[in-house]
Amino acid sequence: MASAPPAARPRPISPHLTHWRWGIHMVVSILHRVTGHALALGAVPLFCWWLVALASGERAYGSFYRTLSGWFGYMLAIGFTWVTLQHMANGVRHLVMDSGAGFEIGTNKRSATSTLVFSLVVTLGLWGAIAMSRGGI
Amino acid sequence: MAKGTALGRVRGLGSARSGSSHWWAQRVTAFANIALMTWFIVSLVRLPDLTYFTVANWLRQPSAAIPMVLFVASVFYHFRLGVQVMIEDYAHEEGWKLSLVLALNFYVAVAGAVALFAILKLAFGGSVG
User: Fold this and answer.
1) Domain coordinates of chain A in residue numbers?
2) How many CB atoms lie within 10 A of CB A71?
3) Using a CB cutoff of 8 Å and minimum separation of 24, what contacts does A120-124 make?
4) What is the CATH number of domain A24-133?
5) Cross-chain Cβ contact B111/A45 below 8 Å
6) Which stretches in chain A have pLDDT values below 70?
7) Predicted TM-score of the model (pTM)
8) How far apart are the first and last CA of chain B?
9) Distance (Å, rounded) from C-alpha B29 to C-alpha B34?
10) Which residue of B51, B53, B86 is in closest CB contact with A37?
11) A137 Cβ neighbours under 8 A, 6+ residues apart
């Protein structure tokens, strides 16, 4: 009696990374989580080590300083500078969006792009200034 | 079933019955972090060098130790909330989720205690010569 079901049509699939067309607002959103976790799980142990070394005296601080004053330390420091600034910039963007503003697609993509521009420009500017003031990093 | 007041219904949203306060605390600490992280970065950049005596003599002053205590409290609370959301998003099995959130809480408690103790030891420890 019942008519045959319409020809099998793909069912809607649950939204996930592999199903969305990538856009800058999506990249920045994922980066927010990645940078946040890099800070929580990567920068926090380093920060604690730094504080404990300071509290433990000159020798302990010396071993912290020697470990992190080579190229590896600079990579970490510059990397975490960018990670922090990106998370901060997009965090401010999220606070604005929490007020209900900035959801129009054009505005949203522009604000997403501007967080990346801000974090990259300030990281380069900051480390450029440090390099110049000390005659090389 | 009593529905209670509008406020009563809003309080306790979410699977842990604390969704709205979690969300709000994340925003409050986010605002605090903007100021405290800016202070932290500017302070480090302004130090003439990062040798032991320079950094230790800076951090043992109340004008640095107090913001640093606030920095640890606000940043650590903020990341605890954020990491918990990721665990809840991706750990679907209840036992696994509970274990990870428990591990997160221990991580934050230990790291927070270590960081705060180190700051206070330096601040209360007198001159570092």
Assistant:
1) 24-133
2) 8
3) A120/A82, A122/A85, A123/A78, A123/A81, A123/A82, A123/A85
4) 1.20.1300.10
5) yes
6) 1-6, 13-15, 135-137
7) 0.87
8) 68
9) 9
10) B86
11) A74, A127, A130, A131
CA torsion, ordered A51, A55, A59, A64, to nearest 10 deg: 0
- Written as six digits, the tokens of A69 are 């004053």
Q: To the nearest whole angstrom, how far is the Cα of B10 from the nearest Cα of chain A?
A: 17
- For residues A40 and B52, what is the distance between their CA atoms, to the nearest angstrom? 25
User: If you count residue pairs, one on A and one on B, with CB atoms under 8 Å apart, how many are there?
Assistant: 70
How much is the ipTM here?
A: 0.87
Rounded Cα gap, residues B22 and B14, in angstroms: 10
Q: How far apart are CA B73 and CA A7, in angstroms?
A: 59
Dihedral over alpha carbons B23, B28, B29, B30 (to 10 degrees): 90
Mutation test of the interface with chain B: which of A31, A34, A48, choosing the one with the most B Cβ atoms within 10 A? A48
Distance, in Å, from the CA atom of A127 to the CA atom of A84, rounded to the nearest integer, reads 14
User: Which position has the token pair 């705060």?
Assistant: B116
Rounded CA separation A26/A23 (Å): 5
Of the candidate ranges A3-7, A42-46, B12-16, B112-116, the one whose mean pLDDT is the lowest: B12-16
Is domain B26-124 given the CATH code 1.20.1300.10 in the classification? yes
Count Cβ atoms below 10 Å from residue A78 Cβ, excluding itself: 16
Classify residue B106 by its DSSP letter: H
φ/ψ of residue A16, rounded to 5: -155, 170
Give me the count of residues in chain A: 137
Helix (H) or strand (E) holding B3: none
